[in-house]
Amino acid sequence: MNGFLVFPIIIPLIVATLALLFRKSSVMQRWIGVTGMVILLASVIVLFRDVYVDGIQVLQLGDWDAPFGITLVGDMLSMLMLGISAVMGLIIAVYSLYDIDKERERFGYYPLLHILLMGVNGSFLTGDIFNLYVWFEVMLIASFILLALGNSKNQLQGALKYVIINLFSSLLFLFGVALLYGMTGTLNMADLAQRLPEVENVGLVTTVSMIFLVSFGIKAAIFPLFFWLPASYHTPPVAISAIFGGLLTKVGVYALIRVFTLLFTQDIGYTHTILMWVAGFTMVIGVLGAASHYEFRKILSFHIVSQIGYMIMGLAFNTALGLMGAIFYVLHNILAKSNLFLISGIAQRLLGTFELKQMGGLYKHYPFLAVLFMISAFALAGFPPLSGFWAKLTVVKAGLAVEAYVLTATAILVGLLTLFSMMKIWLTAFWGTVPEKGVPEHFGKIALFGAGNLYIMVVPVMAVAGLILLVGLYAQPLLEVCLIAAEQLLNPSVYIEAVLGPQ
Amino acid sequence: MLIMVALIFGIALMAPWIFKLFREKTGWVLALLPLGSFVYLLSWMPHIADGNTVTQSTAWVNMDFFSVNLSFYLDGLSLMFGLIITGIGTFIVLYGGGYLSGSAYLPRFYSAILLFMGSMLGVVIADNLISIFVFWELTSFTSFLLIGFTHEQENSRRSALMALLVTGIGGLAMLAGLILMGFATGQWEVSALLNEGDIVREHGLYLPILLLILAGAFTKSAQFPFSFWLPAAMVAPTPVSAYLHSATMVKAGVYLLARMHPVLGFTETWMLLVGGFGLATLLISAWLALSYTDMKQILAYSTVMSLGTMMMLIGLGTELAMQALAVYVFSHAMYKGALFMVAGAVDHEAGTRDVLKLGGLRALMPISAAAAAVAALSMAGIPPLFGFVAKEIVYEASLGATLWPVLIITVAVIANIAIVAASAIVVLRPFFGTAVETPKKAHEAPLSMWIGPAMLAALSVVFGVLPFLIDSALMLPAAAAVWGAPLDFYLSLWHGINLPLILSILTLAGGILVYRVWDPLRESAPMKVWQSGFADYPVRGYDATVNGMLSLAGWQTRVLQNGLISNYLSTIIITALIAVGYTFLSRSGLVWNPSFADVTIYEWALSIGIVASLGIILAFGHSRLTMIVGAGIVGFGLALIYLIHGAADLAMTQVLVETLTVILVVLVLIHVPKLKEVRSTTTRVRDGVIAVAAGVLMTLLIFAVTALPFDAFISEFYAEASYPLAHGRNIVNVILVDFRALDTMGEVIVVAIAGLAVYALIKMTRHGATQK
């Protein structure tokens, strides 16, 4: 039993409540918003240490033994996901200090951000399939409002598509849970893992796995279920795009990894082959979607889809190397992708637009910003010595090891197209000449660290770029914990025993 | 060696600040870095010459089945390349300082060129397969920055991207090849792989491994048909061209294949592919060089020709070819580096590089002229220069080819005739003849810009006259490393009158003849065809690929991401139907044994009533209001079903929620404009079919699941434990607030946040409206 497991859920709740109490005061909102993230990060670090030292941690809520109550489980995968979510939460909160207007602050931006993280963290920690559904709902409502907050026509249109499609995903999820319950009589995931292999009609279990694949696939934005993402992610303020683009789809990926390693391993030849196809198509369609756009944030949004493909690819191989690669890919991608969104926001502040055709001159006038972009963009494209290199290397190596040559070749080609998409931004916004018309007066005059507090947006970007570099240059520790996570996933008995006790 | 590479990278990143300290003198200070590395490498030369090798290894990532070492391996081959990179690098840093003097981007240039040097050095001395790839990618990245140096010009950006993509795809292919080779042998260090050649050659994956690695080498070293990016990259400032495209980056592919020769070579496939591509490249590009008048373009194509020659030699795979390779690489670096730098100096001082607009500069730029003359003579292969030694041995190796020696030597001679002519063009036209009015008033380049060419030209003389200075010290170990076993040979200027010498004389005579008719020849129809076929079409192919990809992308996005939520939803639902339905039918099969025995008449009536009324309303209803009523009917019907099963409190909750929902939605909808019917009958039918199919599938699944035995142990536990342990009589309540309290908390939050949302959406709109 480890009581700390509840903190990543409770802390955002308390912080959100506090922030709501001081709704009128912008200053208090900001202080509470950022401090809350610091406390959350600290609690996650403590928890991480426990899991690293003592193995999987479990908390039976209300002291009802599993499978009768709800169990919180922290294994290495959960910890890594929690860790990255807490880090990004802090980064986004700081960035928001400048990016988010007073109006949105007044209408509950910070509480919503924390509730969003509460839903995300709950999803990572829960060991109960129905409880996972509840956290998905929390996440969905918070993210819907964050998307719509501001009421611009674009935002509402995007948010509507987002919420309708995601509600369909919830519906499927619920249906799937009901069927699982009907087959096994339990909702606890460890208990499910134990009982599902005993179900006589194995084919039915596989069928239910497809319901989860579609439901979580919508959340993760895989092909052909991703439509809501490119329709909505470029509409809200950048801070929100960044946390959505980085974090939210990865919750779907997390859920896929969880159920396809713990619950649905009856018919790997069938399910995981489907995952491979999904991975390939998702990569290709996503990167082509990115190539077809000429707006900074739309390129980034569509490109999220592509990268999800790599993570599914690692999962599909179902080997230690593959899963390690998938998990590493998730972590790296959250850093790189969020950072690119954040940079797009700074570029927009300087040039007044996200349209590449009206951008230019950033390399000439803001070389430091150019370096930050380079680090993030080339990391995304998998260049050494940045974080993305290890992600690419492990996934490619895993693919060649299981002789999935076509998929690996696809992954490699898509890597090149990723580079192409990123360079499209670089060649215009950074290397291109300053457009003659429509450039704000202040372009080239205000400094990143000068008056005007732009540094509040730059410092978080620097921090993430630093992490990307650190992970790239000194990859060993993170790769090791990713391997621990992967090995735990491949040996579900450890998870099951931790939850249900020695069998 | 790790320290050396790290130091180069570190200082490169600090270059902008170093520039602030030394301003104009920065080049002289920073040149100490490559010079120091050169001296360091040179200090290993005696050790290597004695037949030793050096390995140093540091673990970068070290895990059971996933480890990457930052390891380095110095033998004759890597030493030779390392010396070229650092030696010419020293002059380039000086030269760049002069060439770009006064440019605001000079500090960025120093950073980029030094980063490039570090990466390039890394490629040739890295031992681990993965670290070779790491440095290889870094050269692609840094050369991208350097080629696009004058980034405000559209052309520069285009060429930079072209180089990045072409070499990038090759690099990625190479990575796959290297990993497969690592898997095949279990060895990840080149030094260990060198003894595993037989395993690789006999492995089932030999051909894929070879092709993937060749893709990397051919793109990087600009072999036809991937050669187009190199001439395009000449938009870069000349120091960059001189360094990347004469001495270093383009030779990375040559290096890689030379390095891998003992492992992958000695097969017929190798000879045909490497030799064949090399031979085609050298012939095509030698004559392409003659179709341009820009000095840099001429030099660029002559470089591609040299790269082809090197590939051809690697492909020949004989002892003699390996010796020729070492000598040729070394001599090429010296004369081509010098010629590029001189071309840049001419451009810098006279304002143009077009040989038709230049003439008689030798009086104004005597040192540059002398350096250019010597280097060009070396390139043309005229004694007593080192280039002559190289050409003799190349001819000798070609004659000794095991496959088709006649073809090879003929092609080699024809190509070299063009190169002799090109050598003449780049030196005679600008520097000799009558003086021509140039865009800028020409004068001698500053010291920093002529010292490099002068020194390199001098070395061409020294090594030509005294080849024993380097033959056993440098050339022999390099050739032996490519050969994979110790060799014994010596170089000399004079071999007596033999076939290679006669061929050399023939080449020279032919070259002079071609030079004399160059002006009409350049404009002639065959030359134009040659140019459009081999220089323009590959570029068009590249453009077509990129544009094709873009239009495919655009088409795909228009089809998939068409903005219509109804299309999105139907695609998603159809996907779900196919995935779930197909799996159900193929994996489980239909399970159909429902027992309707205990279904009461009321339940029948309710179920049928709900489904039928909903169906009718959805099919024929046209206003939002009727649809809401339809949804309401379903809700109230469900409440009745709960009631029949004795769950009075659930039924009550359901009725309340349903009533509230319907009232709220109706209230909202009153204010919404009337629904315009946009759906055609076909789409309505389509949607209907999808809906019915989804409903049927869900029903079938429920039947299949209920056909399995149900283990009610949890409900039983709740029934037993509710009162004694949780102190509640109402089991549902206890479940909600105790057994599964976390769910309830989550849902409470959802409702609370929804309230917040409604408030924000209403208030903010109002606020926004008053603001306007």
What does this structure look like?
The complex is a heterodimer of chains A (about 500) and B (about 775). Chain A contains 21 helices and 2 strands. Chain A has about 500 residues and is an all-alpha fold. In chain A, strands 1-2 form a two-stranded antiparallel ribbon. The model of chain A has no long low-confidence stretch (mean pLDDT about 95). In chain A, about 75% of the residues lie in helices and about 0% in strands. Chain A has helices at about 5-20, 25-55, 75-100, 100-105, 110-125, 130-150, 155-185, 190-195, 200-220, 230, 240-265, 270-290, 295-315, 320-350, 360-365, 365-380, 385-400, 405-430, 455-475, 475-490, 490-500, and strands at about 55-60, 70-75. Chain A has one domain. Chain B is mainly α. Among the domains of chain B are: about 1-265, no CATH class; about 270-525, no CATH class. Chain B has 33 helices and 2 strands. Chain B has helices at about 1-20, 25-30, 30-45, 45-50, 75-100, 105-125, 130-145, 155-185, 190-195, 195-200, 205-220, 230, 240-245, 250-265, 270-290, 295-315, 320-350, 365-380, 385-400, 405-430, 445-465, 470-485, 500-515, 520-525, 525-560, 565-590, 600-620, 625-645, 650-670, 680-705, 715-720, 730-740, 740-770; strands at about 55-60, 65-75. In chain B, strands 1-2 form a two-stranded antiparallel sheet. The model of chain B is unreliable at about 765-770 (pLDDT under 50).
Number of helices of chain B: 33
Biggest interface: A-B, 116 and 96 residues
The proportion of strand residues of chain A reads under 5%
The structure class of chain A reads mainly alpha
Q: Catalogue the unreliable spans of chain B.
A: 766-772
Share of residues in helices of chain B? over 70%
Radius of gyration of chain A: 22 Å
Distance between the termini of chain B: 67 Å
Identify the overall geometry of chain A: globular
